[in-house]
Structures are given as C-alpha cells and as structure tokens.
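Database export, one record per block. Field names are fixed; values are copied verbatim from the stored entry.
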Amino acid sequence: MTAFDETPNREEVFMKPHAMTRRQLAASVAGFAASAMLGVGKTKADDEVPFSAGTEKPKFRAPEHTCDCHFHIYNSKFPAAPNASLVPPDASLADYKRLRERLGFERSVIVQPSTYGTDNSCLLEALAELGGSARGVAVVDTSVTDAELKRLDGLGVRGIRFNLGRAGATSVDMIAPLSKRVADLGWHIQVHMKGDDIAKNADLLGSLPVIVVFDHLGRIPQPDALDHPAFKVVRDLLATGKAYAKISSLYQDTLDGPPYADVGAVAKADLLAAPDQLIWGSDWPHPSPGKHGKPDDAQLMDLAAAWAGDEPTIRKVFVENPTKLHGF
C-alpha cells in the first residue's frame, strides 16, 4: 500500500462528514491536497522509462533546444522487413516522450532502424506527431524515385542511413550513387559501420559530396581504439568539417562497462580535435545494449556533457551542432 492509499478516501471525506469532527475534516482535506501536490501516491513505476535503467534525472541540466540526434520507434502494426535480423518489442512514441521529460530535452532526430528496411512508414508517423521539434533520417535504396526523396524532404527527413553493421536494405556500393542524389536536397548520409569497415572504405567516405555522420563514434573497436586506423579516418574527416560523429551507444563497444572510460577516451579525443562536429544521441530504446545490461540514460547524458567539458563545447554538442546539421 502506498502513502497515497493511506490517505482517507475522497468519498469518505466529503460524503460522510458527520463521522468526523470539524478539525478532523479540515486535517483530512489538507492532507489530501498536500499529497496530491507532492505526488505522494507516485510509484517507482511511474518514474521509469521503458528500456531505460534508473529513474533519476541527469545531474547535467540540458540547455534550451537540446537535441537527441539518435533514437528509434518500434511499432508492430508496421511489418518488419522479410530479412530483418533484429525485431525488438514495441517502443512507442509515448514512451519516448517520457524519456524526453526525464532528460529535459526538446528536439529529436528519429532514425530508421534496420527492422523496417526501406519502409519508412513508422518513422514518418512519429515524425508527423512530433512536428517541428523533430527531424528524420530515412533508409532508401537505389530504386527510390526523385519524387519520393522530395516527399520525404517535405515531411522533415534530412538524411539517409546506411546500416552496414547489420545485414539489411543497403550496401556499400549504394553509398556513392545515393549521396549524389541527395546532395541537392542538402541532406547528409549516416553510416553505421564497424571500425574495420570504416578503415577499408576510407577513400570512399572521404570522396562523397555530402556530409557523413558516423553512428556511435564510428564503432571503433576496443582496446587501444585510439591506435586503430578507423579512429584516424574519422578524426581527419571531422577536422576538415566533412563529417560528424555521434556520442551515442557507448555500451556496444566498451570493454570496461559503465562509466565507459574506454569509449570516453575516443569521445574526448574527437571533441578535442573537432568540437564543432560532435553531436549527442540517446540511442533509445537501446536495441543492441551490449554485454552490460540496460543502460541508464541519465548517466549516458551526464557522461557526454562531462566529456564535452566547458560550457561552449556543451552548447555545441547538444544544441548548435545538431541545429546546423538537421536544419532546425
């Protein structure tokens, strides 16, 4: 029984006053009002965000217009692609709005997951509901028409994703032709590649006519990530302004586990080299949580802010860089 349950029932208080003295009645009414104002009846479950550990808010207070640059929505009313290798449980927009409230940010970028292939219907539904506070990153293949690309642009899509870390709808040989087709729209391309593949495709990634956004800091393998050739590829592209990297999904490549000091070394090195090219993403609902269990989103946000360090860099990572990249 909660503290709220121990408060006299409203019906008993107001419908049967003859059983109480005036002083008892006044005390009961005051107690009920105080309980409501203080949220005494609130349970831990009310504070929990699905797919996120912990219930505390971040210690870091997000600046106005902070943007979460990477999250997914899953809804089983939309069929998974026939070749989908990852079909997570439903993660609704209502659940995500609870994450927004807990972490204290107001802008979002919805990323098409591999689950739905090139059918962007789930993404577009969520994008329409969030309205001007959101942008989208879709998945298309080389069969997409110019009319469809223009339609997606009008609905708030600002980039296309190549998820090459998992078998799906796109492939490396689609990157160059599709990059050329979306360049006139001012879009970027987003690549989810593991570090070894980034190193193999360094020449391709450096030759594209659009901005390249690296998911999850480039998925540089641990340990000794700073010595991996992919780290130099990503850092050099960041330094020239031709790329961005997301401080997101810290749990996928860490060997240390929370608080992810090994991945943090990559983030801090990138921030030092190119503070104008780093952005933050929650990666909610964490479809690939790694070996360390469901992460605490407040901790992840606090870590990104701590690694950014000073206030000007924090504003760049959470507000200014996402605003420029996604056209808010």
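Remark 1: The chain is about 40% helix and 10% strand.
Remark 2: The longest strand covers residues 157-163.
End of record.
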